[in-house]
Amino acid sequence: MTSIAQRVLVTGGAGFIGSAVVRRLVRQGRQVLTYDKLTYAGNLASLAEVHNLPGHSFLQADICDGRAFREALESFRPDLVMHLAAESHVDRSIDGPGDFIATNIVGTYTLLDEALRYWRGLDAAAQKRFRFHHISTDEVFGTLGEDGLFREDTPYQPNSPYSASKAASDHLVRAWFHTYGLPVVMSNCSNNYGPYHFPEKLIPLTILNALEGAPLPVYGKGENVRDWLYVEDHAAALELIATRGRLGESYNVGGSNERRNIDVVRTICAIMDRVVPDAKIGPRDALIRFVTDRPGHDARYAIDASKLKTELGWVPEHDFESGIEKTVRWYLDNAAWWEPLKARYNRARLGVAK
Ligand code: NAD
Ligand code: DAU
């Protein structure tokens, strides 16, 4: 454990990636404040392992509420803010971009404004220690053709309301570093998967539908490629970037696990046929349905993570095969986590622009 970043405020800490970060930091003995509005995607059950430990506290608050964030900074006195709170689902951003503009852009601006005020009020030693880590996505870079990888200097070309809102937030963070000197680090990651993933996203949706024998929707021809990273490997990368990354720099994070969507879905079907065969359902790949494509669907994402590996020594522990097997088994063993989510989302199709 490093001696820096003993007090960490994590926005979005009740979400998928945020909760993995919080669980990791609390296990390490750091003091963590989870700051989360608890939208449909936020879930305190994802923090059950650490929720009542002395190292963890929780505040239900909106990142657009500057006063609430100011009070949280003043009372908790963090030396690190890790900002993960966001509206995160591309399909929902197509149906309703307003929440994405509010949370991802205005919310990030609000945090920067208050973090700058807080940082300016710290003594010199505390100012030197303080960092604001903005967590973002590879979707800001747009889409790749058959070749090439996203690097940190790839031009931004976001294509969905979600990615445009994240791109805007990245630019704001960068501006607060260059203009006001706020000590920031940034990271852009590829698709995460693993435990506690809300079942609106491809992998958990496929696992739960396959378990019930329900249709498995694959957008378009299923040929779009994503670069999959196991969520706990991302959490480890985020800890390194937050504590050791160079100020003002951004780091790309990705698992070098490019897969076509149709192959991801078929892999899940094969694991489930082996682990939970069901004679009534039969072979699960017969449940696959090619459905109307996502509007503006990016063809391919793939990350060059060599900066993170070379500078900070990050090495992911999971490849896609080990990670997906672990993930399927986690969902099979943790119905108590996902059953209650049916009341929030019934797995109906989202994001078909009218
Ligand atoms: P998620 O949707 O699972 O969780 C988001 C969390 O933020 C939830 O707990 C929600 O309650 C909270 N939140 C939303 N609006 C809020 C607000 N206004 N105020 C306070 N809290 C609010 O998202 P995730 O998949 O864990 O993503 C976390 C971050 O990582 C996001 O910034 C996302 O853009 C980024 N990211 C995600 C992925 C991925 O594959 N999931 C990949 C790269 C980057
Ligand atoms: O690349 C990082 C991004 O990955 C993050 O910034 C986002 O927050 C995160 O949600 C994820 O975005 P995607 O749109 O890639 O994830 P999703 O799971 O929604 O979709 C993955 C791929 O699968 C995508 O090409 C669309 C497709 N898809 C998705 C769903 C939900 C289907 O074919 N069928 C589906 O039912």
UniProtKB/TrEMBL annotation:
<dbReference type="GO" id="GO:0008460">
    <property type="term" value="F:dTDP-glucose 4,6-dehydratase activity"/>
</dbReference>
<dbReference type="InterPro" id="IPR036291">
    <property type="entry name" value="NAD(P)-bd_dom_sf"/>
</dbReference>
<keyword id="KW-0520">NAD</keyword>
<dbReference type="Pfam" id="PF16363">
    <property type="entry name" value="GDP_Man_Dehyd"/>
</dbReference>
<dbReference type="GO" id="GO:0009225">
    <property type="term" value="P:nucleotide-sugar metabolic process"/>
</dbReference>
<comment type="similarity">
    <text>Belongs to the NAD(P)-dependent epimerase/dehydratase family. dTDP-glucose dehydratase subfamily.</text>
</comment>
<dbReference type="InterPro" id="IPR016040">
    <property type="entry name" value="NAD(P)-bd_dom"/>
</dbReference>
<keyword id="KW-0456">Lyase</keyword>
<dbReference type="InterPro" id="IPR005888">
    <property type="entry name" value="dTDP_Gluc_deHydtase"/>
</dbReference>
<protein>
    <recommendedName>
        <fullName>dTDP-glucose 4,6-dehydratase</fullName>
        <ecNumber>4.2.1.46</ecNumber>
    </recommendedName>
</protein>
<feature type="domain" description="NAD(P)-binding">
    <location>
        <begin position="9"/>
        <end position="327"/>
    </location>
</feature>
